[in-house]
Amino acid sequence: MSQKEDKEAQKVSHETDLYVEVPSTCIPIVYSPQYNITFMGLEKLHPFDAGKWGKVIHFLKEEQFLTDDNIVEAREATEEDLLVVHTKLYLSKLKWSAVVATITEIPPLLFLPNFLVQRKVLRPLRTQTGGTIMAGKLAIDKWGGFHHCSSNKGGGFCAYADITLAIKFLFERVDGVARATIIDLDAHQGNGHERDFLEDRRVYIMDVYNRHIYPGDGFAKRAIKRKVELDWGTEDMEYLQKVELHSEGALNEIRPDIVIYNAGTDILDGDPLGGLAISPQGIMKRDEIIFRAARRRGIPILMVTSGGYQKKTARIIADSILNLHRQGLIGGIALDAAGPSLQPVAMGQSVLPAATVSTV
């Protein structure tokens, strides 16, 4: 066995606590209070709302969609879990507060002891990453991110490559999962997972993003099989037409075993970083388009809620989840006369902080 093959075998054989059996009574939403980053107000120095996920869950509880007893509790990804994708060298760099300050774009972290940075910043990110991995398995079971972070480099508030990890775990551990399609609808190009899967023909990437903003990674664009570049101020009609046309085209071109849907809300009109002009109703319709496309084809879907830099995005995410449920596109309904369970949803992270709504 070659060194490369031996390394791959070690990755597959490591024991993980992330692939757990989930009670059938649970709604397929993966979340943990540990997702939310709060520490001396430092989280307010970044435009992303680091408590967004807790607010989404609060709204869903208010609508009596969720209770504490039927949420799937996310677990923290261990170093062994992270090594499935990341290098030891990269993970060791995160033991330097200056590196984390650069990745998260919160300069004052530079002056904090690393044990505090680990506890207050990286542990939540590792829990979000664990949630995304769990959500991928949940999507497959129920049926029947950080998109700027690659294996050896973080950026754009993304310290761990949760989308890449979720896909690699599925490829290595779940029989019958051999192809994945990433539909990345965050306003920013998903350069992290694009770099990770640049030479991997098992992964098809569709990316719809504002061509004028971060990261502008020309090298990573080579991995995109269906590229849709938008201009400043793109509005609902043009946007939704392109999303529907290209998502249908992507899923017709290659039928995957799972769809990873990066549902960033930084496309919302007024977002300080996205530069697009999509309405709340447009975001809800966009999510419906993707779920219906997957549902018609019987493809499990993992949804990560990704970027979004306005306070009202949490309410919009909750409203979209409720709408998908009302439309019969998500939920924890067991087998019945209509056929398999409906698509699930899981909260996690991906792309300039994201929550992971794992859906099937």
Briefly, what is this?
The protein has 360 residues and is of the alpha/beta class. It is built from 11 helices and 8 strands.
Output the number of helix runs: 11
Overall geometric form: globular
What would you report as the Rg, rounded to the nearest angstrom? Answer: 18 Å
N-to-C CA distance: 37 Å
Helix and strand succession? HEHEHHHHHEHEEHEHEHE
Number of domains: 1
In the sheet with the most strands, the strands line up as 5-4-3-6-7-8
The main sheet comes to:
6 strands, mixed
Look at the helices and sheets and give the structural class. alpha/beta
Task: Bin the strand percentage.
Answer: 5-15%
Number of strands: 8
**CATH fold-level assignment:** Arginase, Chain A
CATH architecture: 3-Layer(aba) Sandwich
User: Which CATH top level class fits?
Assistant: Alpha Beta
Uncertain spans? 1-6, 144-151, 153-157, 332-342, 344-360
- What assembly state would you assign to the polypeptide chains in this entry? single chain
Could you report the average pLDDT, rounded to the nearest whole number? 84
CATH homology superfamily name: Histone deacetylase domain
Percent range of helical residues: 25-40%
Quick tags:
360 residues; alpha/beta; Arginase, Chain A; two-stranded parallel ribbon; globular; disordered C terminus
